[in-house]
Amino acid sequence: MSSTKILDYTNPQLNGTIIVPGDKSISHRSIMFGAIAKGKTTVSGFLLGEDCLSTIDCFRKLGVDITVEGTNVTIQSDGMDNWQEPKEVLYTGNSGTTTRLMLGILSGTKLHTVMTGDASIAKRPMRRVADPLRLMGAQIAGRENGQYTPLAIQGTQLKAIDYTMPVASAQVKSAIILAGLRAEGTTIVREKEVSRDHTERMLRQFGAQITVEDGVVYFEGGQQLKATHVNVPGDISSAAFFLVAGAIVPNSNIVMKNVGVNPTRAGIIEVLENMGASMKVEVEDETAAEPTATITIETSNLKATTIEGDIIPRLIDEIPILALLATQAEGTTIIRDAEELKVKETDRITAVVNELKKLGANIEATDDGMIIHGPTKLHGGKLQSYGDHRIGMMGAIAALITNEPVEIDDTDCIAVSYPTFFDHVNSLLNK
Ligand SMILES: O=C(O)C1=C[C@@H](OP(=O)(O)O)[C@@H](O)[C@H](O)C1
Ligand SMILES: C=C(OP(=O)(O)O)C(=O)O
């Protein structure tokens, strides 16, 4: 297996300031919107993670001119009507966001395209997107009636739908909205629980009109996007690893700047507050399209909590690292309503429970989450990442509290969302 790491820290402390890399969800969307709009879109703070590079690669194959200089990206596009039919398969790598949002975008073009990804993507359900898109008239073919990649899309004229979301998923919502851009009529999406709203916010930045009232999105088809500048904030899902590290590693104090605190993403802040973490959140720019904050966290005495209901979509990607946090909290933490974890890069309920148990955690899986009794002193061990970046980073943060070596089989996958993760760990160590 590639990139095994043995992490061996003796009484580490984490102190200092980091600027977490750009938000993955917003970085993907900046490329997609810039490619749809005619003209020159510029992006700053772009995440150079592998998932976002997959999105760039797909749009280059559609003939869009994209240049990357450090974290600044320029997208020069003749607009989506002028994309070229790609001669090659579009490769979406490990990225569910790329695959699902592109399915929505490509359905309303005139192009024939084929998309595929890696072994993890090949197992992730696509009917949740393909089915509503088919109601709009989309022509999508794939294994098991469009459930799995490779997917072939024959673009066609779409019509708007009024769709009630069966699962809380920003990827499904966004795919429908983006298909709605090219559909006749008003696309309506009804959410029971609000999922991240980056698509809605960015559409407004690109000059489109979109209305959201009581969890219902209304979007009129046929609107043209206007090229613009997108400033990508830091990713709270990446900051999450250091929020937890700061709280559980003794004698630590970590400052994180430019962290995106969009309320549809910031559930982890509420959980940390409920658990009694010693934390300060100073909002930097409330008026920006995506608000940001400086967050300071220090070693804390934590108490258990229950994480359930409508907060789940607002912290879904943070649950692996919150499970580690709960092993250090006094009492029983219950995580429920989180069955979506089973269809991420890996089954994250099974992966989190298996791996934390190997370190001595008192944790059990349930059908829709997990139950964790704490606090437990964790010990060293040999972990698997399952090729899942968030499981790999959870293991690496756990290694900071074991005082014994922790071996992780594959840490290359961390570059999917946080290529500078170990640089940031090292920059904070023992200062
Ligand atoms: O829209 C997005 O950018 C994302 C939505 C979430 O997925 P779901 O829509 O499947 O919940 C999240 O887990 C993923 O990391 C990014
Ligand atoms: C689930 C994730 O991403 P995606 O669905 O884009 O693969 C994630 O980053 O945790």
Automatic annotation (TrEMBL):
Binding site for phosphoenolpyruvate: K24, G96, R124, Q171, R348, R390
Listed pathway(s): Metabolic intermediate biosynthesis; chorismate biosynthesis; chorismate from D-erythrose 4-phosphate and phosphoenolpyruvate: step 6/7
A GO cellular component entry from the record: cytoplasm
Subunit structure: Monomer.
GO terms classed as biological process: amino acid biosynthetic process; aromatic amino acid family biosynthetic process; chorismate biosynthetic process
Sequence ranges assigned to domain Enolpyruvate transferase in this UniProt record: 13-424
Annotated PROSITE patterns: EPSP_SYNTHASE_1, EPSP_SYNTHASE_2
Organism for this UniProt entry: Ureibacillus endophyticus
Full protein name: 3-phosphoshikimate 1-carboxyvinyltransferase
UniProt keywords, alphabetically: Amino-acid biosynthesis, Aromatic amino acid biosynthesis, Cytoplasm, Transferase
Compartment(s) where it occurs, according to its Swiss-Prot or TrEMBL record: Cytoplasm
Enzyme Commission no: 2.5.1.19
Matching InterPro entries: Enolpyruvate_Tfrase_dom (IPR001986), Enolpyruvate_Tfrase_sf (IPR036968), EPSP_synthase (IPR006264), EPSP_synthase_CS (IPR023193), RNA3'P_cycl/enolpyr_Trfase_a/b (IPR013792)
Gene behind this protein: aroA
